[in-house]
Amino acid sequence: MSWFSTLKKIIFSDSCCVLCAQTCPQRAMPVPLWRTGLLLCCLGFCASLEEECVFGIVGQPVSLPCLYPKLLTFVNFSIEWRRDDEVVLRSVWKENSNVEELSINSATISADAARTGNFSLELPIVYPKKHYMSYSLFIISEENQSAALCTVCLRIAASFSSPLLLREEAAQGEETAFLCHSSGGFPEPAVHWHINHTNEPPEGSVRTLAASLPDSHLYNITSHLKVNISKDSIVSCTIENLSMNETLTSTSYGVGVSPVVSRASEALWIFSTALCAVVGVMVLAGVAYQIHLDRMSKRKKREHQQADRGYKRRNLCNEETEAIKPKETDV
Question: What pLDDT band is residue 90 in, cutting at 50, 70 and 90?
Fold first, then answer.
């Protein structure tokens, strides 16, 4: 939004507040209360301005909305979308025919914009030139040029890479050096260092350099920290990009609290526990199977013994029967 439009709205808001105070003389408003109300009006107005900004991510398309149905009655006119003072797109309508004369970075509008009243500007790719950019739509007729019909604020941002944190150990009593590097983001982020999660490094121990890449205008950021700390201290570097609402942190652990060692010990403990559990299950399964075999063997042995006893009893009965039978004699 242009500074003139912003100033005009602020003045108009203040005038409304003053007019309201003057039209109600029967109730005198205290000066502190009047100032508080005016401050709330200004804060609400600023919040509405922030909401008007369209968020665009670098390298992705974005649409800047603009609806103006009043142009449906115009004939032989042209429109211009401008970024600050630069013409981004110019289109000419003559008897319902549309002819595009100029387009920068492949910016387009709908082909039937003059019929529907939708003059939204479509940007296929967002370029990181500035954090905030203002786009305005103007109508140009045969007589003169109008004021801005639509003004859209575009807020641009891009994510940074996860920070790479390097630690250079120093001899006893000397300062330890740290390097934190992140790249490919927009706009320039804030860098925060912390020692043992809470303490900030002493003043003058941090040196940060942000470099804008000439081709893409994205930022590479490198921060150096030199501080005299113990070897078991924990140092973290945080890249904060408020525009993307992201906070990326990388941590360097000291010698005594290395997360690699703790994770390896934890993994070894888990493996040992799982191995013991598996061995225990296998032992229980083997014992249960051996008990089952013993029971089967004993049952078969009892069945075999019972079969032998029955066989002997049958033989004994047969012998007794044969002994009882009278012997046949010849008469």
Answer: confident
